[in-house]
Design a protein that fits this description.
This protein is an alpha+beta fold and about 650 residues long. The chain contains eleven helices and 36 strands. Strand 21, helix 9 and strand 22 form a beta-alpha-beta unit. About 0% of the residues have low confidence.
Amino acid sequence: MKGKHLIAAILLVFNHHLQAQVTKTFTIQADHLTAKIAPTMWGVFFEDINLGADGGIYAELVKNRSFEFAQPLMGWQKLGDNIPEGSLAILNRSQEKPNNPRFLQVDSNDPQNKIGLQNEGFRGMGIKRGLRYDFSVWYRQLKPGLRLHLELVDSAGNTIGEGFLEPEAIGNQWQRAQTSFHATQTCPKAKLNVWFEGQGKIDLDMLSLFPEDTWKRRPGGLRADMVQRLADMKPGFIRFPGGCIVEGRELASRFQWKKTVGPVEDRQLIINRWNTEFQHRPAPDYYQSFGLGFFEYFQLAEDIGAEPLPILNCGMACQFNSAEQAPLDELNTYVQDVLDLIEFANGDIHTQWGKLRAQMGHPAPFHLKMLGVGNENWGPQYIERLELFKKVIDAQHPDIKIVASSGTDPDGERFDFLNRKLRELQVGFIDEHYYRSPEWFLSHANRYDNYDRMGPKVFAGEYAGHPPQVTDGPLENNWGAAIAEAAFLTGLERNADVVQMASYAPLFAHIDGWQWAPDLIWVDNLRTYGTPSYYVQQLYATNKGTAVVPMLADGQAVSGQEGLYASSTIDQPNGELLIKVVNYNHKPVRGMFKLETGKKPTKEADQILLTATDLKAVNSFDDPEHIHPQTTKIAVKDKTIVADLQPYSFYLFKVKLK
């Protein structure tokens, strides 16, 4: 009897489970194309925040290589037991080199006295065993006899690589010299010692160290593993260089693209605005060397197959800081910067700026099609400045689309004012930003369902789910935020005739040097990992399709009813239907996906699942793929897919249609 009661109890629980599991029917009208999807739909936003450029994607290992920080020897430490006064001195040549005036003079009269400098790198130097490291320096040898002895040392001071450089030229002309050596050990936080051996006098500048394994093996290039993360997303565009650094805390510290092109040694370093922005996370050593400048940004976009989207200052500094404005009658310099940038990107090699692009190694144009005027600016003062820019750009370059700011928030008086004015101006794109809670993203998946179809297109330029009451940076990139973003993106995709570009922000964060979180990709000196949000973005970007097709439940778009969110697209060239669905419920849901099409689906489809059992779950350096896409096969029978959608899960179904 006990056995019978046990079986009955099990059957009761099983039947209860079946009754409790919701079955939802989705209808996909695969032959009914409602909107084209722009190739630029899903992209990336780059800003030099969180050590994103110097100390991040720009592979230079030496911090303050040209001694231009406010404290000339910040990042450097003198080496030696008995350093004579004046033997290591910082000099200034402001008349000769106004963009890079400081240099180091080494004057050693005692060949037996060992002196040198140690550079700490950007929170250390990531060094890999067996890899070649390329050291270079600009020098002016006034009295021959000194040799540079280079040492990479680990955290305990042990030598893990060394090389030598003996300057040859003598005289007052600056020369560039370089040498290479290999590392014998891997170390995430190494340092570089530069010993001056012998007797002599020499001036030194731009002391630089790069690994050989830069992206595309370009000397002085970018960190390959970080670029690869971007390339793996197949982004439709890359927006650069920000962000708030475009504005600057005041106009003097705004981003000026002309100071970031030409020879690297002639680019003018400035303080990064994130240096002092957050008192709880100060970064006094955060500067912009501009080794990653506008040429390199354009080149990066080309490398990863993305459209370039530069953002330029509109004559307004950050309104949260100084709110400084250039008078309207002094805007010509700012407007000319835009015109000259278009010439730099697209101009013939016989033009002034097209010639510079060619001299930098790229005679062909970069095919710039759009640019932003201002970042997160607001108010009538922004509109009156934007009008001046638009008038000139439209007259001289009517094919260039203008991206304009709708301020810092997706609603409220500022947004309503700007949204109305920008639509009256008929700008190319209205740049909307939303850093909000996961709940906001879940409740706004239908935001664009009733937007004006005929007006300017929307650029969802900066967004991220910010979990409340989480203050540890990496822990903010949890699954709860990512799945809410996935749900919201179904609404962007469904309304691809309105939203034609979207990008998460910020992009990169260094684990030892971040100011802002959450972020899409976390890095240290040797490793990277993609957050759950990264994999959400990647799944959308690599499976965007070419046109939207309706996906309905109970005759309605699926935008949060019963915790379900969905969209569907068709990839016409590949004959593939792409179905995206989010189950934001604590229980599974049985989904029946009925394909209304005159074509014949294959018997199996790819099912890609992104999920976690805990909404607080995260990826990490130790477990970088704790949450990552998992692909299996699922049956397609009678033009129907039946799938048990796990709780708090994001699914992508890829169905071939013949």
